[in-house]
From TrEMBL, chains A, B, C, D, E, F, G:
It is found in: Cell membrane. Keywords: Cell membrane, Membrane, Transmembrane, Transmembrane helix. This is Mechanosensitive ion channel family protein. It is a multi-pass membrane protein. Belongs to the MscS (TC 1.A.23) family. It comes from Planococcus dechangensis. The chain crosses the membrane at residues 12-32, 64-85, 91-111. Residues 67-108 form the Mechanosensitive ion channel transmembrane helices 2/3 domain.
Length: 288, 288, 288, 288, 288, 288, 288
């Protein structure tokens, strides 16, 4: 009777196990289908916004993701089914674990890139067309991708860097820029007269430069070295127009001063001559 | 009878399992509801203070968080329910673990950013409008966000950096600043006379400059090089007014000295001439 | 009877175990076969594209991978079989775990290299023949490999670096380049006349240089130092032609100016002479 | 009868479980109460010493800690209660583990800051009012906090940095300082006479400077370059008085030397003239 | 009877356990033998290729590896046997785990070195005799070892570095090199004439230099500074012959120019003299 | 009867559990007592040697350690007791694990500091009073502590750094030092005569300087630049006496040479004059 | 009867447990004895070779290791015994795990140092007496220890660094060195004559210098700047004799040239004078 009971139990167990195997297989299959559809939808919907993903890459990435997910789900299902037959799966798990560890570590940069990329767009740190400086790259943002960003320098080269490397962003396109012109004048100059001339010149700036949006200013004496007095002039311009405005101001200022006969200083040096004969006689610098 | 007992037991087990499944599902649902409400409340209440979160982002972030939490809770519930059917879930856990590991590592920067951001506000290290220097960024704080901080340089560009990068903060707006002016005078000058003149000048500083809040001082001879003696002058000013005050002091000092006929030194050099003919004859430097 | 039952159970268990051992061995064998075929196929199919893998390496890598996979699968099978005999395999797993840990850590660079390499090709950051700058390496891309990239400098040396080191790519071959020529002129020069001459010269650039694809421009006064005024000229060229164009423009400009008698400035200095006798007498710089 | 036994057992199990739930809930509640009281006491007692915690922050931090502890204890209690109902909690633990991992990694900086902060105070590395240099920050310590330290530079700006960044401390306030004055004299000078004069001057230092606490010394010839001989003078002063003392010594030394007619050297150069005509003729440097 | 059954069961268990112990011991012994033979074979066969392992080291390393493997296998066997006696081995495992962790972390550099070393040889990045630059080391590769590489500088010193440090390799021996000679000429020179002379000289290069494998070229005006015009000449040479060729070209060019009376420029400066008397009078730079 | 048996079993279990609780509590209590005594003994005995621990800190650290140990042991005991009541303690362990992880990571620097500190003393790398350079700190070792080392610079400031930062130690007090004096002489000098004079001078060094312990040497011509020939003189001195000896040697050498009428060189320059009129005429550098 | 059976079983269990405790205690004791003997033997035998371990340290280290091993084995034994009484030891393990984690991380540098140290000796990278450069340390290797290496600079100071910091070794003692002498000659010189003279000089080198082991060579014109032509001379010397040989060659070369009346060049400059009056008139650089 007990044998019968065992039989009955065994059959119960066997049929239960068979049922579980079937259910797990179906469940895994359905899960894969669902995940695939989600992936496809996400790709066709979500990244329509500021991220530019070309068609070809779109497809490649979508398929890659589908493959990875399919493999992972089937692996889980197989492991679970094996464990139904009371087979200790520690070995399999451990083997997969070492691979998983290496991949997990190796892939952390990838995850970091995507997370940072998400925040760049979410926080609107910069957008396509902005003039930015990010690490060594300085130029116009050309493309903000899932994993990398492209910036074009003014001399034509393209900087491509992973988003995870974007830590300190300098964005020049969000606010008006300030054009800064430093003017060296000689110590011999009459400071008051020079200032008067500069003020006269500055009044001509805003009317003549359309990119300048407020009256140009004379900040004052920025520096006073042994050879020159440095005057600093500033002008608020539209974003990123300060390079051009500063160039033009330098040119106009030079012409303005030339026309009025103001000389800009060359380096100067006072030279005291001593004859070779004087050399040692003179050595007793300590006079008396 | 034993079969009957087994039946009874089985039915007990089945009904117990069914109950647990229902309870778990309901519990998970309620938990999600509660967590969602907490998230929404937190967002509408807590960050009213110094952090500026615009409406749109507010909503996005709140929804993102809700989604993540919903997915995580359902995942846990599903795993727990599966385990009720005596299905070994090691496989699922292991699979989720590798993903979790990669995400955990990738997200640690995010956590670090938010924790540091919390402490910046909590410790009031700086607030919007302060003039600060943080790494390469120097300028006025424009916005302290959940994850990033924005600083505007005086020339208009915006620095954007994650809070986790904020290690050494230099805040210029908490205390009065000191304007420092270094004045080079010639070695030939009569030091006592020059000092007398400087003292005379310094007495005119506080009355004429409204940003200077205590009498300007002559620190003394800061340096003595082969070509010049450097005198250092200081004036305590309102926070961040020291750039302007130093510029004006340099200008006024120059005018003051010019008016009194004091010459500032050009680099000097003593030149000893030797004729080409002398060249080799003279080679016996060791005389006698 | 119970002994009999135990016997029966035991035989059941023994036969079950034997069955499992056989099944596991066969399963492992089949798995290895399948994986090997997949590896071979992948190697002969997938990397036909932009990655250049020579025949010999192809074979070596393929065999290496097959060996590693074979060892790993047999190890898992053995561990699983041992566990069927109720032998605690924690010791084996732990031993393998330490080795796995060291290998996992040591191999993470390898994984990172391959992942980054995949993205370089997938995102088309650069391709063979492009002129790029990656860290210290600057030159023409010669080969993009599974793990490393080779770049040939213009002076002939080859830079070889793992793909994981490729973070910031500067690609010069994607867009037109800008040739930049800086021209120093003397402060004494008549700026307007010089500008007129430069404009005259620039008109001759596009017609005479086939690599220049738009009229050359005079950007303006880039800098104004104590000794010179720096004028900047630019010309848009085909990608990577800017070095040659700039060289030729400098040459032609020099000839153009020489022909018209314009002098380029040598460094200038104003020298004031003082006699040694004057030295101390003159010390009272503060006159009167 | 067996059914009855099962019933009895079941009721025993149910009542036992119920008891455990009640006990766990009460235990958790009591534990929270106790921990809260400990936190409050710690905050009001322990940090009275050298750490300055303002009232408001005190309260905020104390509440924050209480909240965190409360959440953690309730989470543990819930998990333990769930496990009483034979619900496998691996899923919950795993979920919490990923979050915990990210938080644990993200929070390690925080822990490091507090540990280092504890040691700064415990080892008395510096205290409020000391003049220190820590990384780029140089100035007077203003506040040593739980997590950060504040240092005020002499020009007014405040440096704020986490204690974990404090590795190399330079403390200027623990010992007397040495004022160092380097004096350049001409190669033509009579060294013995100059030394005699310097010794004469140094004797006047300690009597006239109250910050100098031992006779000033002439260290000797520190350097001998092509243009000058550098003599080094030192004077031991009270802590941090060396800047002021060195400035005053430079000034007094200059006056002392001026009064005795000793000239300090300008850079010198020997110039050999060659006529343009000599140029090529002379080319045969190899004479004969 | 039950006692008897227990006895029987016990004896079964005991005999089974004894059997397992014997089997495990024998298995471990055989495994060690096998692994040892594999190690010896690998050492005598595999590294015959490009890696140079001297006899003595060969033996040492082989023995070291044998010892480590022997210890590890016996440790695993012991742990497994202990677990057969139902002794909880967590303690042992944990103890070994901490040691394993430290060793695993400490050894990861070793693993990294060997993996990178394998790839250097497998990818043929450089081989013995190549002239390479790797980090600070520049010279001829002397030996590529299991863990380290040796490079001999041209001045005789040997650089020894672990392969894991080899990230960016610069290999000079794979392609022809380019000898680069920069020639400074005076602004006063007649550019066309100089170019004609250089072209004349370049035609003599390939016929006279056997290492030069294509006609030498005049690249053009590389730079134009305030004092000189820099002309760049290049010649393609056999690998690593560019240093010698450039040296000889410089010498021959100098002789060629000297023979034709072309002068190379000394630095030039325009000096404007002002008398000390002029000094202040002239101060009104703003004329009129 | 079965109920009775269950009762009996239950009472056995209950009494066993009670016994275990009591035993565990007592064991924990005794363990704490023992550990405390060990801590106290260690503190009063072991660190008497080279480490300087002041009384106050001694006590603080000893108490801190006692507290930590007490808390840890009670925590373990509680967890073990809870587990006796079949309460799943995974939750508690997991909670403690996250805290432990953060603390473990945060504390690793501490452990590293103490381990390195131990080796500094054990290997006698330096001891109190030695003159060392460790990273930026250069000066006399003042204190070697458990966690940090203090070094006093010669100008009075104290460097305090954790022992874990001590990687490269430069110890100046273990061996005799070498005083190095570089002497520039003019190219015009008669090298043989100068050498003879230097040799003559060097013979006077050892007899007159008590810190010099072997005859001073003339190393030879260290460098030969366009303006000077540099002769290097060395003298072996007692440890750390080389600064003083070099200073005195420079002084005596100067006096020695002055007495014998040897001139030390000023920078020299050959100047070729060209008149402004010559400028363009001369432009045809290519003569003929 | 069942009670009796239980009794019997219980006694069996109790006696079995007691047996296990005794066996474990004895096993641990024996293990400790064995390990101690192994440690002592290793210390007295193995490190006799190239590593220098003084007697005192020998003993200290050996005792330290013995203590650590003793503690670890007793801890494992205790944990195993506790687990025999069905006491859940997770708490203890977890507690020990956190400590182990911190120690494991903290100790990884130690492990790394020893592993690298082993390879330095095993690969014979350098040995005592070699002249090496390792990071900032340059000098003669004085001692290669278990954990650190000591290098003595030629000026007497000792560099002490952990072996783990030894990555890039530069060993100067393995091969002959090359003495390099750069000789600047004037552009005015007759290159062929100078070369003839140098060749004449070089022939005198090998016969007169015993450290020179092959004829000295004239490499050629290394550089050609605006002021000088640089000729490079080399001579192969015994290892590390190149400093002395180069010094002597410079001296002899100078004497050789002086004797033959060859002048070495001073920096030259062409000066064009312009009178202040010319200043503005001349401004029209654009002539005609």
């Amino acid at each position: 009777m007990i044998t019968k009971m065992l039989d009955e139990e065994m059959w119960l167990a066997i049929s239960g196990t068979a049922l579980k195997v079937v259910l797990l297989t179906i469940g895994a299959y359905i899960l894969i289908r669902v995940v695939r559809i989600i992936i496809r939808k996400s790709f066709s919907v979500r990244f329509k916004g500021p991220i530019k993903v070309t068609g070809r890459r779109h497809q490649t990435l979508s398929k890659l993701l589908e493959n990875v997910v399919t493999y992972v789900i089937w692996f889980m299902a197989m492991v679970t089914i094996l464990s139904l037959f009371s087979i200790n799966i520690s070995g399999i798990i451990a083997g997969a674990g070492v691979v998983g560890l290496a991949v997990g570590f190796g892939a952390q940069n990838l995850v970091r890139d995507v997370i940072t990329g998400f925040f760049i767009i979410f926080e609107d740190q910069f957008s396509v067309g902005d003039y930015v400086r990010i690490n060594q790259a300085e130029g116009t943002v050309q493309e903000i991708g899932l994993r990398t960003t492209k910036v074009q320098a003014w001399t034509g080269e393209i900087f491509i860097f992973p988003n995870g490397n974007v830590t300190d962003v300098v964005n020049f396109s969000l606010h008006n820029s300030i054009a800064v012109v430093d003017l060296s004048i000689s110590h011999d100059s009459d400071l008051a007269k020079v200032e008067r001339l500069i003020m006269e010149f500055l009044e001509t700036v805003q009317p003549n430069y359309e990119e300048v949006i407020s009256p140009a200013e004379l900040l004052g004496v920025q520096n006073m070295t042994a050879t020159e007095v440095v005057m600093r002039l500033t002008a608020e311009t539209l974003p990123m127009q300060h390079f051009g405005v500063a160039r033009r101001m330098r040119r106009d200022l030079k012409e303005f001063f030339d026309a009025r006969g103001v000389e800009l200083p060359y380096p100067r040096m006072v030279v005291m001559h001593r004859e070779p004969g004087e050399n040692m006689a003179d050595a007793a610098v300590v006079k008396k």
